[in-house]
Structures are given as structure tokens and as C-alpha cells.
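Hi, here's the filled form for the chain we discussed.

Project: internal
Contact: R.S.
Residues: 188
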Amino acid sequence: MPETPEQFYARAAGALRTPPVETWEVWPFQGPAEPRDLLPPLDREPALVGEGGVDCGRCEATDEEYLWTDERWRVRALGPTGLPMVALLEPRDHYATVADLPDRLAGELGHRLGHVERAIRSLGEIGNVHICRYGDGSEHLHWWFMARPARFEQLRMNIVAIWDDVLPPVPDEIWRADVEALRRALAE
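And the returned structure, exactly as it came back:
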């Protein structure tokens, strides 16, 4: 009988490996890293913030908290952050997963992702915009846009999210100017 995923991960907890991160040009720390122990699985998945649309901060937020809105989508900026821009795209209504989106919104999604990425790139000196979908904190569906500054090869790839936490926040006046520029670009 093949082992279950739970059995595999229980076995894997005793065989964790350390990737050679100290050799990666993009790794933001000196020296090797050591993985933490893998904890046993929980009895059930933990509740997410705003689960089922109840006490969902995103559903309760007003349009004034966003840079750009239309009848179905909203964009907000986070920060100041260590990266030039970190923004979120959210559907106005509460959906937990991409599979929950009605066909109309699912059909618009690619257009919206491109719209936000182009607007962030228009800020200038942006080497790449990483678009990510995480959903283990807040249930309200959202996509992250993380702008990597141009010409900083060390900040490339998926490690950019860690660099965002390592780098000091950009000065408030620069961040505010970029937020206003992004607001204008999104409105075009």
C-alpha cells in the first residue's frame, strides 16, 4: 500500500536538507541556513482571516483605501516597503479561490493583471514585477505585485519577497510620489 501524504511528510521531517543557499547570488544572508524542524500536521486547516466573508477587512474597506477601483476590482499599495512598490489586486466581492470567481471575473483577470503590471512598470527603474498568489492568511482573494528595482541582479527571482523584508523601507516621500504615479497610471 503506498504511503499517504501525511506519512511521507512525517518521514520527511527526519530527512530535511539544506539547499546550498550560501552559493546563491540572490540569497540575502551570509553563510549556510539550517531548516527548522517540520512540525506534525494540525488536526485541521486553521481558519483564515475573513473566512466566509465574515469580519473580512477587505470586504469592509472603503474605496478611499485603494489607489484604483472599478465596479469589480480594487488595487491598493502596501508600504513603504523595501521594494519600490508592493501592491495588491483584489476582487471587490469576496471570493476565496480563483476557482470561485464567476466566469466574467475569471475572464477579466488576465487583463487586470496586465493593467496593474504595466502601471507599476511605468514608475520607471523597475527590472521586473513579480505577480504572486498567496492565500494562507486572508481568505479574500488577492494577487501580490512586487516590483524589483532595475539592475539589482541580487534581488532577482522568488527571493525578492525576502529582500523586501531585509531592505530598509524606501523614504516616505519617494514612496508617496510612486503611489501617486501609480494611481495616475492605473486611471489611464
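Let me know if anything looks off before we file it.
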